[in-house]
Amino acid sequence: MALEKPKVFNSQEETPAGAKEIDAFSGALEELFFVERPNLKKSMPEAKAPLEDFLKNHGIKGVWIYYPWKNAVVHTLPEELYFKLRTARNRNIITEDEQRNYRNVKIGTAGLSVGSAIAEVLSGTGGPKILKIADPDVVELTNLNRIKATLLDVGSEKTEITAKQIWELDPFAEIYCLDGGINKNNIEEFISGEPKLDIFIDEMDDLEMKFLSRIICAKNGIPILMATDNGEGVILDVERYDLDRNYPPFHGLLGNLKIEDLAGLSRRQWVEMAIKIIGADYLVERLKISLAEIGKTLSGVSQLATGAKISGAAVARAVRLIANKENLASGKYKLNLEELCRIAI
């Protein structure tokens, strides 16, 4: 797919003729003034004169960002100030140093069902500037219960939809799209090729590729994060191959199983193997029942938007911890709304 990314221009004259023009510069300047002067508020009379002086003499040169798929040009702040303003409300839940490290980590996400929610939260929180995304599928109607897409996106490649959503929020992001998805011929390049990943996020359905990704990540010392929808919750798998290259794939849950044992599985065999990887004890009861009905009364794995969004948040948190060299051990982590909503404060 030759997806045309946003173009950044330093002057309005360079932008394509006939494009819709959006001014996001004037309001951003005023916001920037107050972000840099937290002792002042718009409602304060004493803010009026310094604000007027700033707007008159700021000397900031904006940029014009052209979105070809919208045929629109947005006038906004240059990258550094744009990022500063966009992440201003993150502080100090995320400190400046943490934000910088989070921004600089290089991420690859394979699989854009739950992966699309992960990409949404990563970009929304001012996360990685450099991202690789891969998925072989197009958006279908049955995807619309959980992924960030609309009826207008049906039939479009998931990589294209995800990349456009990220760019419309983060026009300076560097996104590498693999719309054919991950296979034996490209998985190593996706993970360890330039730019080499710092963290690999596994949201693939192909169990053979999941196993192979762990072999490659172990060889290269790259940690793996995997979020699994669990009803209205998430099971987060953390495999820290950056700390221990001999850590067993899937925490050793598959025993001595070899990668070739995962090829050519029937639907029922796939479900049984997936449950082993996830861990039956971690699954909520309704998902257990649903998995048993695949191929009988259900055509696929049951998933909800609530679970996908929680998965996105959990992975983004884990990425920040790893990027900032904070403690996050290999293992399984579980978070579920069904349990939390029974707890009264």
Automatic annotation (TrEMBL):
Domain of life, source organism: Bacteria
One Pfam family from the record: ThiF
GO biological process: cyclic threonylcarbamoyladenosine biosynthetic process
InterPro entries: ThiF/MoeB/HesA, ThiF_NAD_FAD-bd, Ubiquitin-activating_enz
Domain THIF-type NAD/FAD binding fold positions: 89-228
One GO molecular-function entry: tRNA threonylcarbamoyladenosine dehydratase
This protein's name: THIF-type NAD/FAD binding fold domain-containing protein
